[in-house]
Amino acid sequence: MNRLGIETLSVFGLPPVEFVTLAADLGCAHISMGLTQVPINPHGYPGFSLREDVALRHEMVAAMRDRGVSIALGEGVNVRPGADIRSLAPELDIMAALGVPRINTVSLDPDIGRSLDQFAVLAEMAAARGMTTTTEFAPGLTIADLSSAIAAIRHVGRRDFRLLIDTMHFFRTGGVPAELAALDPDMIGYIQIADAPLQPRFESYMQEAMTERLAPGMGEAPLREILAALPRELVVSLEIPLLSEAQSGIGPYERLRPCVDTVRALLAELDA
Q1: What is the rounded CA–CA span in Å between residue 29 and residue 237?
Q2: Is 27 helix (H, G, I), strand (E, B) or coil?
Q3: Separation of alpha carbons 13 and 5, rounded Å
Q4: Residue 243's domain spans which residues?
Q5: Extended strands (E) in 95-222
Q6: Per-residue confidence of the chain (272 residues) as pLDDT tens digits?
Q7: What is the distance between the alpha carbons of residues 266 and 256, in angstroms, rounded to a whole number?
Q8: Which is nearest to 9 in space by CA: 171, 231, 207?
Q9: What is the separation of C-alpha 1 from the centre of its chain, rounded to a whole number of angstroms?
Q10: Is the pTM of this model over 0.90?
Q11: Residue 262 · residue 219 · CB < 8 Å
Q12: Which residues pair with 21 in a beta bridge?
């Protein structure tokens, strides 16, 4: 089973069909995808919108079929202050049409009670379209650490509402692999992998997380132990934005090839 994926943040706005081609060329079976281009675009790729461009959606579906790649995670369906998550129903319809099996959500609304209630509504909406939902925690988000994320999972109380474990966020919030091993494996739905030093390299955590993570083995996160504590059947997707390399002219294949090789070897070692 090919568990490897590439997250959309790793490719900085690469258009959808080209993203599918890149993943296949790297030997990865999965990608994550939002409906619009991420705002960080050092290569100057042309803009796109899967929301507006029906023809592009058809082209992407055909490319995924031809290259054996699927969208493992739909992104951008987030809880925001003053906005009703029900307004995102058309986004979910498009993701379902693209064959997305799960969506990920975070809350940017500081009202924790409202955030949890919106999560519950979103999970129900996704389930009605045949999709599951994950939620991600990170410093600076309303759900900031593992314990808060577990509380959110329990509040929603649905088996199709699970945790997304991002290894950088988990490591930087003080998580240790034993905490993951102690969880019900069914509580975890998706894995994003990147390395990081223990001490921040930027004043803003989100700037570091969005632009300059480290390739596996280049930081201090215990990636082998984290992966060993997580369910073996889950997608492991590389969220490794390397903006300084992109700005120096290094393309996505060259940036990500060493990262993919390292993670593939790590997974093979664990599976053995």
Answers
A1: 10
A2: coil
A3: 16
A4: 4-271
A5: 102-105, 132-136, 161-166, 188-193
A6: 899 999 999 999 999 999 999 999 999 999 999 999 999 999 999 999 999 999 999 999 999 999 999 999 999 999 999 999 999 999 999 999 999 999 999 999 999 999 999 999 999 999 999 999 999 999 999 999 999 999 999 999 999 999 999 999 999 999 999 999 999 999 999 999 999 999 999 999 999 999 999 999 999 999 999 999 999 999 999 999 999 999 999 999 999 999 999 999 999 999 88
A7: 15
A8: 207
A9: 19
A10: yes
A11: no
A12: none
Q: Which CATH number covers residue 261?
A: 3.20.20.150
Dihedral, 115, 138, 227, 99 alpha carbons, nearest 10: 50
For the beta carbon of residue 46, count every other beta carbon within 10 angstroms: 8
Provide the domain count of the chain: 1
Let me know: does 216 contact 224? Beta carbons within 8 Å. Answer: no
Residues in the chain: 272
